[in-house]
Amino acid sequence: MSDGETVRTPDPDDPDQRAAVDPLWARAAELFDAWRGGRADSMDALVRLLTPVLWHVVRAYGLHREEAQDVIQTTWLALVRTRDGVKDPRTVVAWLTTTARREAWRVVKSDGRSSPADDDELERIGGSAEPADAVAERNLERDRLWRAVAALSERCRRLVRVIAFSERPDYGRLSAELQMPVGSIGPTRGRCLDKLRILLAEGEAV
Amino acid sequence: MPEHDAQLFTALREMWEERDPMPPGLVDDVIIALETQRLAEEYRELLLVSDARELAGVRGAAPRILEFGAAAVTLLLRIESDGGTHRIDGWLAPPRGGRAALVVGGAEVASALITPEGRFEFPRVAEGICRIVIHSAGEDGYSVTGEFEVH
Question: Are residues B20 and B73 in the same domain?
Fold first, then answer.
């Protein structure tokens, strides 16, 4: 990510700009286009390329792992059904992440859940310890980061995870789901990162 | 994105990838779900349109002609029987190449190439209840005839 400040706010409605600055968008557009042109195997490649991204975006909403899997499957089925509903293949990543987030949000709300169901996530802390010293050291750092993230507000945690995995999410759509004005996403992101750094520093001192 | 933010996001991504990884079977599950949906949508049953025997020739039993059809596909089968063995000649219209499979009791028992002219043959078919499955070249999905009895 050495692309500096200039790509921080690309016009999300301009697919040319997005595809030009984001290799993931460009590759996804190629595959989606090929699939619509009759190459069935391109869809498999698109699924392999973007499902990991969708996983983290959906999990950011605090869904259980099984729920997240269902949401992701629903999202892909919706893409195949809509097929020509995605007017410009260069926007397929935005279409998928937006559909996945909307579906995740729907599941969270329909459940009347007030806080994320990340119990299963928290149980994983320290569960990946391996014997090697270097790995142990890295695990310690990860544990510290993990605890700092867990101490963030739910909104910050969600925002940070969505941004981490969708690189440059469309702030317009994100603002509706995070229930904050578009203009405040940038500053909120900054505040969330500041908070995270403070928590990390505190964790280090312990 | 400022460099120090980028580093933090990289660390966060790695953390989530390690601590909350995507289930290993998820990609395959999605691909299977898409394939299942595709087949359900692409599967076309070719319905029996007519079943007639050609006018009896001078000797022996006359061949039987079955016509199957779906929206844009017609499949003609000519079944010629000689004692206990049967021969099926198929003709697909509009013509297109591909592969035809002979299915008996849910299992594929023979496979034949469909020529670009839309013709194929199963020279030796045993008595029984059959279906023919047509996989056209360069096309998703397949067409399958209703059951018919060869006797």
Answer: no
